[in-house]
Amino acid sequence: MTRLYGLAFFVLLLAILTYGVVEWRASNAPQQEAIDTNLTPDFIAETLNSDIYSKSGKLSYAIDAARMEHYADLEITYFENPEYTLYPKSSNAPWKISAKEGTLYNNNRVILENRVLLVATDEDSLVQKIHGKYLELDLTTNIISSEQAILIQGKGFTMYGSGLIVDLNTTQMTLTEHVQTIYKKSDQ
Question: What region does 114 belong to: left with phi over 0, alpha with psi -120 to 50, or beta?
């Protein structure tokens, strides 16, 4: 009987020791709750409308979005269905750029993704629309760039390519790789 009691005592001691090691390791592991609180936005705005002015008081750009989440620790702002209206320095005609998702970084760079559309509001502009999956926008310089596939629609033509740089202040456009241009017959 003493052997049986000794074996039972040994198994109980082993179980307590194992339980102690498991609890000690769990207490030293990073807590999942701490990770989740870091991803919680500092504030959320629904149906956001905001106008941003330059130091001289001129309207630089306006933003409309279905939803905005600001993360101060990460220094980013996430937008759902953002639409920026950009007012270039050299022109009175604004440009509109929209997407399904947008991320604004603290250096005034915006990454727009999923169904990105840049539209000229000036009817006389040679380039009317630019479609893409991904565009980067610098709100300080009004320069738009992308390394991905781009579709450009203009007066009488449609152009396919990749690698785009557009300076809205000078209306200069550079296409890194031209794939195809289709010209439409004018009715005039």
Answer: left
What is the chain's pLDDT, residue by residue, as a tens digit (188 residues)? 677 778 777 777 778 888 877 887 777 766 554 444 557 888 889 999 999 888 888 888 999 999 999 998 888 999 999 999 999 887 778 999 999 999 999 988 999 999 999 998 888 888 899 999 999 999 888 899 999 999 999 888 999 999 899 888 888 888 888 888 888 876 65
For the chain, the maximum distance between any two Cα atoms, rounded to a whole number of angstroms, is 110
d(CA 126, CA 25): 65
When the candidates are 2.60.450.10, 3.20.20.60, 3.40.50.920, 1.10.1740.10, the CATH number that belongs to 39-183 is: 2.60.450.10
**Boundaries of every domain in the chain:** 2-30, 39-183
Q: If 0-12 CB within 10 Å is exposed, 13-18 middle and 19+ buried, where does residue 95 land?
A: buried
Cβ contact 99:111 at 8 Å: no
